[in-house]
Model the fold of this input.
Amino acid sequence: MNILAIETSCDETACAVVQDGRTVLSSVIASQADEHKIYGGVVPEIASRRHAEQIVQTTGLTLEQAGLSLPDMDAIAVTYAPGLIGALLVGVNFAKGLSLALGKPLIPVHHIRGHIAACYIAHPQLTPPFLCLVVSGGHSHIIEVLDYTAFKVVGKTCDDAAGEAFDKAARVLGLPYPGGVEMDKLASTAVPGKYRLPNPKVENRPFDLSFSGLKTAVVNLAHNAAQKGESLDKAALAADFSDRVSDMLSSRLFAAAEQLSYKNIACAGGVSANSQLRSRLQADAKAAGAQLYLPPLDLCVDNAAMIGAQAFYEYSAGNVGDSSLNAYASMDIG
Done:
């Protein structure tokens, strides 16, 4: 089954052709990062306009690289939630148009489900059930993947997402957008241990996360140093911040895995590309005797291949849409 997948939930116009949920025939991403860098973050109106300008060309290039044409597609898949509403609407309406014109099924895909499915592409042997940490600019969840279309959230952030915290801390340190990538580069040049940062916990909710206090601690360190005329060791602070975030994420993930008796553990989403987090997860998996599944870096970022992978299982479960399909800025994974 050949599925043409479209992803426009934020600032990447992405399209892919995925066969039977596991084989990627082509995948194209038109990034807007350089344009949004001027503003220090994603500007929703600009993102929506660029999607509208790029989506036809991106789809055409994807089909060309796959060596296929639109009539060769068996279904059209699209991210419909969650994300920037204007950006999502571009993809959803384009996908609906293709579905109607071609007479092909329309498959709506939840963005977080798509991130989890990136692990299926990278690791064909991976099958549910397993426990997955999904960490990105807008999401930080520990999820039981009970089946391909059945999920249970066992832990999540109560405020900022991990990726959002990275971006805000990076801005305080004067690093350019996208902040997470720049923080990772800077942190790699120092050894953690110079700055004492808080380890926020959520009372009576051992698997939940809170990053707002950690972000505020970095802001206060930077402001205090500036007021006192002292120099701030930005590399050391970046290393300590990254180390703390990695500790918070990995410790809760493996605590949940122990309580729920999972030995197959996965991690997905943009923040899963962070080198310190990947190292910490690998070390904790080894200590726990667990099998860790990490997607390659190109499948950590938003892409349409992961949407096409999940779409295969959504279609198999009978989850299809029609011309009334709408986009939603927020929606639980269930």
